Amino acid sequence: MTMTELMPLLRKLNRAEKLHVMQCLVSDLAQDESDLLRQNMSYPIWSPYDAFEAADTMLKVLAAEKSNHA
Predict the structure, then answer these.
(1) What is the pTM of this model?
(2) What is the DSSP code (8-state) at residue 66?
(3) Element (DSSP H or E) covering residue 18
(4) How much is the average pLDDT of 28-38?
(5) Quick one: pLDDT at residue 61?
(6) What CA–CA distance (Å, rounded) separates 61 from 55?
(7) How far is 60 from 55, CA to CA, in rounded Å?
């Protein structure tokens, strides 16, 4: 069933039924997210710690923006 077919049907539901559908969908999405991460695995993340080039670039952008408004 496509979204175009589904939306008119969902709009006909009463408030409690709509909330129940939302609860089911959010639960499914949460489960999908938890399936992406596995226990005892490591996943790389970016951290701004020691990102001196990024900080320097940001300071230059902010200084340029400040001088444009002065």
Answers:
(1) 0.50
(2) H
(3) helix 15-36
(4) 85
(5) 95
(6) 10
(7) 9
